[in-house]
Amino acid sequence: MDKKKFAFTRTNYILIAVGMAVIIIGLLLMTGPNSTEEQFVEDIFSVRRIKVSPIVTLAGFLTIIAAIMYKPKKEKTGDEV
Fold it and tell me: Between the CA atoms of 68, 51, 33 and 20, what dihedral angle is there, to the nearest 10 degrees?
């Protein structure tokens, strides 16, 4: 039987899953207490929420883009001329 040709390989799917996990981690880093009208919480301006989390989330998106663009090297067989 012929081997079916898929758009992505197993490596692509693994890299996409890693990228999605990194994005989820970045979004979880953004969470925290919120301010109300009665009480102001200064944690909304923490370095983790303002700088680290967006960088981690962006890294996840870039990982997914790289995973989509990744193309494995073709294996040479003796049959090809």
Answer: 10
